[in-house]
Amino acid sequence: MHDPNCIFCKIVAGEIPCRKAHEDAEAMAFHDIRPLAPVHLLVIPKRHIATLYDATPADEGILGRLLVLAPVLAKAQGAGDGFRVIMNTGRVGRQEVQHIHLHVIGGPDTLGPMLPRGEH
Ligand code: 5GP
Ligand code: ZN
Fold first, then answer.
1. In order of start, what are the domains of the chain with their CATH numbers?
2. What does the angle CA 4 – CA 51 – CA 104 come to, to the nearest 5 degrees?
3. What's the pTM?
4. Tag placement on the chain: N or C end, fewer CB within 10 Å?
5. By the 8 A CB rule, do 51 and 88 touch?
6. Contact indicator for 46, 65 with CB cutoff of 8 Å
7. Ligand approaching nearest to the C-alpha of 90
């Protein structure tokens, strides 16, 4: 459950401070410490799940809940005209914190294309 080495578990436990945007029995949201846009929230399950690769059917409820929270929190933060959800996963996805989180990123006209368009 609580991984003592996990920075987001420590935030859930109140051992590391955060700018909280939401908390309920299963989920929490707080402002990213290095925001990439005027609105940059991290929405996490309280229970430690390291990456999307580690999610199981038992996690369908909480993962759905995080997604349903995203637009509510985005709107509450002033991103009512669109936002982006990003879940970096694993090495190639450049996931830095090994506790599943949705980035909710927005703000007026701050988002560029999803990724630079190259040749594939
Ligand atoms: P990842 O690369 O794993 O998808 O994103 C991790 C995010 O967590 C980064 O955007 C980083 O700025 C943020 N972050 C890392 N440590 C902390 C922290 O202690 N507090 C907060 N609020 N955000 C953090
Ligand atoms: Zn954790």
1. 7-106 (3.30.428.10)
2. 100
3. 0.97
4. C
5. no
6. no
7. 1
The amino acid occupying position 90 is G
Task: Kindly provide the residue ranges of all beta strands, DSSP E only, lying in 26-80, ordered along the sequence.
Answer: 27-31, 39-45
pLDDT at 91: 98
Is the pLDDT assigned to residue 3 strictly greater than 90?
A: no
- Of 32, 31, 60, 66, residue with least CA distance to 46: 66
Active-site annotation holds for 40: no
How far is 75 from 77, CA to CA, in rounded Å?
Answer: 5
Could you count the other beta carbons within 10 Å of the beta carbon of residue 43? 24
Distance (Å) from CA 117 to ligand 1 centroid: 26
CA separation for the pair 5, 23 (Å, rounded) = 21
SS3 category, 50: coil
